Amino acid sequence: MGTIQIKTAIPGPKSKALTERRTAAVPRGLSHATPVYVAKAEDAWLQDVDGNRYIDFAGGIGCINIGHRREAVVDAVRGQLDKFMHTCVQVTAYENYVELAERMNKAVPGTSPKKTLFVNSGAEAVENAVKIARAHTGRAGIIAFEDAFHGRTMMALSLTSKTHPYKAGFAPLPGDVYRIPYAYCYRCSYSLKYPSCDLFCARHLEDTFKRVVASEDVAAVIAEPVLGEGGFVAPPKEFFKVLMEICHKRGVLFIADEVQSGFGRTGTLFACEQYDIDPDILVTAKSLGGGLPLAAVTGRAEIMDAPGPGGLGGTFAGNPLSCAAALAVFDLFEKEDLLARSRKLGERFQKRAKEWQRRWPMIGDVRGLGGMQALELVKNPATKEPAAEETKKITQYCYEHGLITITAGSYGNVIRVLVPLVVTDAQLDEGMDVIEAALTLVFDRDKKEATVQLA
After folding, report:
1. In terms of Cα–Cα distance, which of 270, 352, 303 is closest to 116?
2. Which of the residues 24, 80, 232, 280 has the least number of beta carbons within 10 Å of its own beta carbon?
3. Span 45-68, mean pLDDT?
C-alpha cells in the first residue's frame, strides 16, 4: 500500500466544518492553497482531520527540507523546554544563540570573518539586511529584480515584484527601490538567447546606474539565487558573478536572499555555492528552523557591525527553542547525506518531467536546481501564453487525489516542488504518478475539446 490514503471526498466533513469556522473568524486575506486541515505530519506526508493521508510536495513552502517532526529536532526542542522558553536575548543572552551564529558564520560561503543576526521570519531578515546595508554604505537605494519575492512586510513588499495579490491596495510603499529584469531565460525581457546574449540582463545593471539611479546612491542589489515565488528560475551560472563584479566596482553591496533556496534545497547548503559567489550579506530562513520560526542575516563582520548597539533586535528574535531546533538541523545535514539526496531527487524529477514535456508541449519549461524543481505550463509553446487556469485544475486534482502541491510564478502557471528531502523514492514516484494523472486529465481533455470545436 502506498502512502496516499483517501477515505473521504476532499475536503472531508471535518475540514468543511473548520472552513466554516475559519470564514467567520479569520480575515479573507489569509488564503489557503488547499481546503484541508492537518492533524498530523511525519517525514514527507500529512494526514488531515478526516483521516486522509497525503504526500507533501509543498514542505510548508520550503520550511521542512529535513522532513516533518524529525526526532532529532523534537528532542532538541524538548531539551530546551526543560531549561527555559524565552528570556529575550537583548535582556539575558543564552549560549545556543551564540553557538548557532558561529555555525552560520562557518557555513555561509566566503573566507572573510562573518557575523550573524537572528530574527523571526524571512521578511524580517530582508528588512534587517536592508537596514544593515544602508548603515554600512550611507546610501539609500536598493535594486531588486522583476519576478522577485522578498516578503510581505512593507520594505520587503516594496522589493517584491508581483502586484496581485501581494502589493495591490497597500500603497504607498517605501521608496528608493529600483527594479531590473532577472535572467529568466525562458521569458527573456530582451528577446535574446543564452549564451549568445552575453548575459545582457546582468550587464544591464551598468546602464541602470547611468540612466535610472546613480550607483553612489545605491546601497545594495538584492536577488534570490533561484527565484522562489517568481517561478523557480535558475539563472545561467555566470549571471551573479557579472552582477557582483559591477556592484563591487561601484561600492554597492550584494544581498543574496536564500530564504527558499537555502538549507539543502538546491543540492548544496546554499545555492550561492553553485554560482561560486560570496555575497556580502546572505539571508536565510524557512528550513533553518526545522519547522520553527527562525531567520538569519549573515554577512561580512565589518558590514554587520555598521548599526550601533540597539540598532538591531526584536523581542522574540532568535528564540532559544528555534535556535535549539536549528542546531539540530545543522547536525542532521552533517550526519545524513541530505545534500546528495537533494541532487538525486532533482535528477529523478527532471528525468520524468522531460518525458512529460515530450508528450505535452504545453509544459513549456522544466527547470530547477537539486530538489528545487518546477514545471511552467503554457497554452501554446510558441506564444508561451501562461496556462494559469490549467495549472489550478492540476493542483486541485492533486490534492483531491492525495498530493499537496503549490503554484508559483508571476502568471500563476508554475507548479513547484518542495518535497522534504527525506521522501522515499516510492513516495516521490507515487506523487509524480498523481501529477501525471492530472496532466493527462487536463491536457488530453483540452486537446479533445479543441478537436471537437474544430470539427
Report:
1. 303
2. 24
3. 98
| Residues 362-371, mean pLDDT to the nearest whole number | 97
Domain boundaries for CATH 3.90.1150.10 within the chain: 13-62+337-454
Residues of the chain with CATH 3.40.640.10: 71-335
- Candidates 1.25.40.10, 3.40.640.10, 1.10.287.130, 3.20.20.60; correct CATH number of 71-335? 3.40.640.10
Question: Considering the domain 13-62+337-454 in this protein, what is its CATH number?
Answer: 3.90.1150.10
Angle between helices 320-335 and 95-107 (to 10 degrees): 40
162-165's contacts with Cβ under 8 Å and 24+ in sequence apart are: 162/229, 162/230, 162/410, 165/31
Beta-carbon neighbour count of residue 388 at 10 Å?
Answer: 17
Taking the complete model, does pTM exceed 0.85, yes or no?
A: yes
- Model pLDDT, residue 450: 47
> What integer pLDDT is reported at residue 454 of this predicted model?
37
Enclosing H/E stretch for 20:
helix 13-25
pLDDT, tens digit, for every residue of 260-276? Answer: 999 999 999 999 999 99
